[in-house]
Structures are given as structure tokens and as C-alpha cells.
Amino acid sequence: MATHAQQPPHLHLAEITATQFIDIWKHFDSDGNGYIEGKELENFFRELELARRGAGVDPSHATFREKMNEFMSSFDKNSDGKIEMSELAQLLPTEENFLLCFREFVGSSSQFMAAWRRYDTDRSGYIESNELEGFLSDLLKKANRNFDDKKLTEYTHTILKMFDLNGDGKLGLSEMARLLPVKENFLLKFEGIRISVKEFDALFTFYDKDGNGYIDEQELDALLKDLCDKNKMDVDSNELKGYKKSIMALSDEGKLYRTELEIVLCRDSTL
């Protein structure tokens, strides 16, 4: 029998704060992979039904599957059979919905990267946690989104709790990009063509002939073709243009820095 400490949090989602939502998320995302899926999703939905109706639904009953499929149709926006934190956050009341705030109003990866570069000045792929409030403020201003100091402080604390999991005071680009809408998340677009850091190092060094730490748009064309060849991918010209457009959204006045490209293109990057 489960102990009191193991019991799931109450899912009164219409009344909870953003911080309480994170606690609920962490309970159901038991393996910490950033998604609720499989048994985690089943457990979450059972508790959600209990919170909404005051009574649970038997997972073996056909009604449970039917209702869960309806739920997935509403909230699984990219139809991958998983629920992301930001997709689930749609259940929150508007005033507490910090993730949807960013996903709705910070509409493009270029806006996101423009704000990011103001703080990641050394192109390390990280910003310090004490810079997060300024970064979030910049994003919201770019989106012409009204906010007060109290709400900004709450967003900052909540996002720190989400993304600085090891408490080292650093927030990585790959994690913070989850604030973007799925269609604008440049990292998701390259899951199928990522290579190892060792392979990437060799490719980047070849094209960064002057060793200045970045390549330009023309060099990116050749690098992407090499990348597709290494993955034995039959990519047409339109797909290649799409990859290129996504990556160029990360560029700083046409310069693509090594660290940022590694985060996007390497499956085993530690950045």
C-alpha cells in the first residue's frame, strides 16, 4: 500500500499556482524525461478524472480509453503520443499559465535567440540563473506582453525550479528552448539527423578554416549536406532549405557559433 508521501498531489488545476503545477508535473513525469507518456500518462489522467468528477475511472474500462483519447486530441498538439509540460499547462488558469504565456507571445526562435544572446555573451550555451529575470523580461517586452514585478519574480522562480535541476546556477539553451512553441523549437527539428560530438567537431573544424569559432551561411550549406550524407538521408532541396532556415534563426548577424550548433546538431552534447 502506498505511503502518504507517495500519494499523488491533488489535481485542483483550476486553483493551483504555477509552482504547485511544477510539483504535480514532477510527480507524474517519474523518469524525468520531459514527457508524460505510457503508464505515467494513464496515472495522470486517472487522477485528473478524480479531481474533475470526484470519482475515478477504471483504466481497464473502454470509457477510460475513450476519454483519454479525447484528452490527447485536445492537448497533444504535435501528436507524438506524449504530453509535454507546456502542452499540459493549458489546463492551468490563464493568470498562472506562465508556460503558455511564453509559447503564445514569444512566437519565433529568432526573437528567443535575440534575447538569449544579450545574456550568453561568451556563447557558452548557458546563462547564469541570476540573469534569468532579465532574460524573461526581455522576452516578454519583445512580445509586448504586460507584466508586473511580482509576476516576473514568480515566473523566474518557477522556471528556475523547472530547468536548474542540478542547482548549479546555470540554465542551458537546450532546456530553455522548451519555452518556444513546438513548431519554433529548433532543437526538435534535428532529432532525426543528429551526429556525435566527435563527428561534429571534425565537420565544424573543416568548415571553420580560420578557427574563429563560427561559420557563415555559405559554409552551413556544405556542412548540412555533409551531415545528411553521414546519416544516409535522402533529403530534397526544400527540406534542406527548411533545416537551413531553422539554423540561420540562431545566427548572430550571419555568424553561427560552434557551441550553439553543437547543442542543435549533436545527440550526445553535454552543453
Structure explained in plain terms:
By secondary structure, the protein is mainly alpha-helical. It has helices at residues 18-28, 38-53, 62-75, 85-88, 98-105, 109-119, 132-142, 149-163, 173-176, 197-207, 217-230, 237-248, 258-265; strands at 35-36, 83-84, 126-128, 170-172, 214-215, 256-257. α11 packs across α12 (237-248). The longest helix has 16 residues, at 38-53. Residues 1-5 have low confidence and may be disordered.
Number of helices: 13
Main pleated sheet? 2 strands, antiparallel
End-to-end Cα distance, whole Å, is: 41 Å
Principal-axes geometry comes out as globular
- Give the fraction of residues assigned to helices: 40-55%
Structural class by sheet pairing and helices: mainly alpha
Largest sheet strand order: 1-2
N-to-C series of helices and strands = HEHHEHHHEHHEHHEHHEH
Q: What is the tally of beta strands?
A: 6
> Strand percentage, roughly?
5-15%
Q: Flag low-confidence runs.
A: 1-5
The radius of gyration computed from the alpha-carbon positions, rounded to a whole number of angstroms, is 21 Å
Nearest-integer average pLDDT: 76
